[in-house]
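User: Hello, can you help with two protein structures?

Assistant: Certainly.
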Amino acid sequence: MRFLCDAMLGGLVRWLRAAGYDSLLAEGSWRDRELVDLCAREQRILLTQDRELGIIAPAVVPVLLLAARDLDHNARELREVLGVDWQHAPFTRCLVDNTVLEAAEQHHREHVPPSSRRVTEPLRLCPTCGRLYWPGGHVRRMQRRLAGWQGGQAGAGDC
């Protein structure tokens, strides 16, 4: 599954990327027709909280009009309605620009905080923006939240 989230769903797009899904965030200036055209061209599912867009888009592309404004409820709705697997491919995409992450080289370890350097899991690097990812405490909290959503539970708080 590939997604396009409307401009109101910036937090959700980040979590979809954390779960490993190819997810784009619409710019605030994009018109509804542009969103629908992009979804059709790239075979994306449109996620929106915009009722008007949720009414016109289904004639052209798959769309899910999210009922709740709460992230935990949105996550549950995506799992129940679309079968989103919140454990799909965790932490394989850049949270910032959606690029597939690559294995980082050993010399990148010097850029990791000392408390996380002894972690044996591999570091990942975004080839587009250069952002380095390592399995520190923040990632562990995010993993718990993704696992909770997969199990049908509310998230483990803000991450």
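That covers the first. Now for the second protein you mentioned:
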Amino acid sequence: MAVIKPLIYDEKPSRKLDHRPFFSIIIPCYNSKDTIGDLLASIESQNMNDDIEVIISDDNSTESYQDIVDNFRDRLCIIQTKTEYNFAPGNTREQGVKFATGEWIAFADHDDLYITDTLPQVKEYILEHDEKHYAIANFLEVDPVTQQVRRQHIQTRNWNHAKFYNMDNFWKPYNIHFKKDLLTHEDIYISSCVNCGCNKFKCKPLEIPLFCYIWNARPTSLSRKDYEGREFLEVYFRDYIASTGDLYNEKFAEGEVDFEFAKDSAVSVIFFNYFYTMGFKFHRPDDWIRENDDYCREYLITCKELYNLTNKDILDYAAKDNCSVYYGIRDGAMIATGPCIETISLPDWLNYLHKDLKPRITMNDSLRKEK
């Protein structure tokens, strides 16, 4: 009978680096024996082992993959830690950040890959442009079975893939954290936090014209599973609103972002809510999840009160620049829900949501204070 080697949680580096690493790569893991070896090999293929710190943060795995990690411990600087309890990748990434010592932090999923010899180019680009805050490279969405590229993600601010955050000048000063026990959309939550940080520090991300990361879009992942014919987004729609709209409203209420930025972000989420729910109803006209309308109603009323908005203000925003904002968000929303035809118009939807001024789910009263 094979002996299962326990994972190492001593939180000490497997090999000593003689200087501060440029990158800390944080990897959330759970029962990762089938994938972690390929990811670690792709990190080693960057040929900058003395400038990378790998932090493996385990979410209380029930199966060991230590023998695979051990194959790299003498060549890569590896730190292993774990969460207090099994829950979600956000908690696991947050645990990993605690041990990061690199100048820049990056996140990699345990079943993804870095493209060979690209991280040295990312470093060179950051240094050449004297970037101090935040950098975005490109990544490929790949079918892990056929190896075919499904989509090229170029300079997208969503997700954590191919993103690099300066620890001393951005991540720590803006006090960025993953939201505890957010089951889904934890990466979108961080993207929203980062957008707020850019607003506060009046900075824009450095855009790096390079594909450096491969996102293996597996059908077994939480966002790809079949939920009895429903979209992942419809099932976890409340998490989406919490990771985007609620965060912008909270940051504004706390004085962390300015009015125009918060209002524009909030109104954009209203539009996304509209197109997303239209997609849900179009594809499942008889049994769409009714509670999602309650979430949209709650969010709309909160935004109206917080930013003193009327339906006309929202519609005027939609019509800006020949409706480019409106149609741009529509196109983006349909990537998630699939093509659809709106069952009711945006003006009718706004009136429908606001027919009940007492939302079923109450927001934090601190967000309702007069501005």
